[in-house]
Amino acid sequence: MRRREPWYLFCGDLGFAEQCLLHDFGTNPSAVGQASLLWLFSHLGNWSVLEQLLDKQPSLLEQGDARAALLHLRRNQGHPNPWLALLPAAEQKPFLEHWRHHLQQGLGIAVLMGGGLGDQLEGLALLSRGEWLQRLELIFPPEAERALAPLLLAAPGTRQPLLPPWRFGAPSAELPWLSLPALRAVLADAGHAPIPTPVFSQLRPPGIAEPMLLVCWRSKVDPSERFWAHLRSLPLAEIEGLYRWLLPWAAARGWQVADITAYRPEERHRLGQLSGSQQLHLLAPNLGSLADTALQAARARLVITVDTALIHLAHALEAPRWLLLHRHPDPRWRERLLQDGGIDREGLRVLQQTIQGRWAEPLQQLRAGLELLGA
What pLDDT score was predicted for residue 279? Predict the structure, then answer.
């Protein structure tokens, strides 16, 4: 069988998927290929087997995917500083002492804001305010400029919460640099625990938000992450079924539904034929930038999405938000489910699949929650 796509997490039988993945791991002659399979294995939840595989072949940690798998493992184990655990034990203390001294002396640091859009928005929320942050410079990759620059420029002047200087491009030779996860490891060791700040809350109009839901049922399809976008996204049949309930619910209460999901033309036509479609506004073709999305989210009474970047944006706007989460998320989101009722301290409600690919249970929870909201 040709396995161009990582199919394992599509499988409803996780035991079978695990057996196949272990077989492929054992027969793969490439360290890069084995590391990629370890990263996939870290999403199946068998942490003891993953730790055994990493212990048997520590040289795989030279590969980025294997380090990402180890990071998932340490987070799941509740390690107090999981990023630091990626460094060899002999390097951890010198690393921390060097950067702790650097911070104590008030010296500047360039912070590489890599990762996806959600990681960058989360980083902005964490690195706002605080005197100890004033000597940071945030460096975003050039490819993020189109999405982020309009948002960063949307609230200039004194209304903008204190943010370190930021720019797009590569770090200069003037400042030493750290990645955002590395900086968080240093801060955690120093006793600093940055609290996410609603950094764009000034974009939210004063008073009561409009009776509007802002929804997104599919994740943005990045060419390098088609697989994960599929895992996170609802099929059209599920969306249609949900709207057959949701649109009459909205009409009865005078609510509007603003949908920013990217649909194909034929899908937009099908959704336009649904009963109550006058309550539904398909906005994706009219959104030119993340700033446009932010203005819609700022107006909404509730944001419901499968896309974690939109969750971070909604938090930055202080907008109430619900996340529909697939079965094998990044451990950072799994940690939030440990809170009572799936609601974390920042007001995020998480509705997660219990069986991969089956959205019936979280969608039923969504309906029940909306019934209470609209009562």
Answer: 94
Sheet holding 166-168, edge to edge: 166-168, 136-140, 109-112, 177-179
DSSP for 65-105, written as a single string? HHHHHHHHHHHHTT-SSTTGGGS-HHHHHHHHHHHHHHHHT
Q: What is the pLDDT of residues 312-326, one digit of tens each?
A: 999 888 889 999 998
User: What mean pLDDT is predicted for residues 81-96?
Assistant: 87
**How many CB atoms are located within 10 Å of the residue 232 CB?**
22
d(CA 298, CA 90): 47
Over residues 109-114, the mean pLDDT reads 90
Structure letter (DSSP) for residue 343 = B
What pLDDT is recorded for position 240? 96
Q: Are 210 and 299 in contact (CB under 8 A)?
A: yes
Domain ranges of the chain: 8-79, 85-199, 202-373
Read off the pLDDT of each residue in 162-191 and give the average, rounded to a whole number: 84
Contacts of 185 (CB under 8 A, 6+ apart): 81, 83, 84, 96
Distances (CA, A) of 5 to 9, 63, 224, 230, 329: 11, 20, 11, 12, 18
- Name the residue among 249, 320, 251, 239 with its Cα closest to residue 279: 251
Q: What is the DSSP letter of 324?
A: E
CB contact at 8 A, 227 and 348: no
CATH 2.30.29.30 correct for 202-373 = no
Containing 311, the helix (H) or strand (E) segment is helix 308-316
Residue closest to 179 by CA, chosen among 89, 69, 68: 68
Highest mean pLDDT (candidates 14-18, 105-109, 153-157, 265-269):
265-269
Distance CA 202, CA 255 (A): 24
